[in-house]
Specification:
With about 160 residues, the protein is mostly helical. It contains seven helices and no strands. The radius of gyration is 20 Å and the shape is elongated.
């Protein structure tokens, strides 16, 4: 399907609400694992220059994660404002938002359990922005979902029946 047809179809996906918190959570866990591996390398195994480069890259990723999440929300709101919706779907959207916040809270608890475990504690201390972001992920999902709902349902409705 071409991009032009996709844009003209004006259809969105409900699964996007579940997808981006899951992707962010997986990224956070992968970064913590990578930092743990990098911290455990012996200097004789890999040149220390490359270990420093990898650590600096993960520090940049730590700072960039906030930008990525904010931009995902902004893009979702802008795209949601382009979709024609019927007000009847507001109630299911709010129910889906509540379920998304609940699932995100569970994901944040799982991340916290992994991040504070003895094997990952040192690595997650080197990623303070990701830790702060994940501890507030349910609130971010709630605010992002509310903004998307406003963008979907707070615009003038056109007559569907001619």
């Amino acid at each position: 399907m071409s991009l032009k047809k996709l844009i003209e179809s004006e259809k969105g996906s409900v699964m996007d609400t579940f997808l981006w918190p899951l992707v962010v959570g997986i990224m956070l866990i992968v970064c913590a694992i990578l930092l743990t591996i990098l911290n455990s390398f012996d200097s004789g195994f890999v040149d220390s220059y490359w270990i420093d480069v990898a650590k600096n890259t993960l520090q940049i990723w730590d700072k960039g994660m906030i930008f990525i999440v904010v931009m995902m929300i902004i893009v979702a709101v802008v795209l949601a404002s382009q979709i024609e919706t019927h007000p009847m779907f507001l109630i299911p959207a709010l129910i889906l938002l509540a379920v998304s916040v609940y699932i995100t809270t569970i994901e944040a608890n799982i991340y916290w359990a992994v991040a504070t475990s003895s094997s990952f504690a040192a690595a997650t201390n080197e990623l303070p922005n990701m830790l702060a972001l994940n501890s507030r992920m349910a609130l971010i999902v709630l605010l992002g979902g509310a903004l998307i709902a406003v963008a979907l349902y707070a615009k003038p409705q056109r007559d569907i029946i001619p």
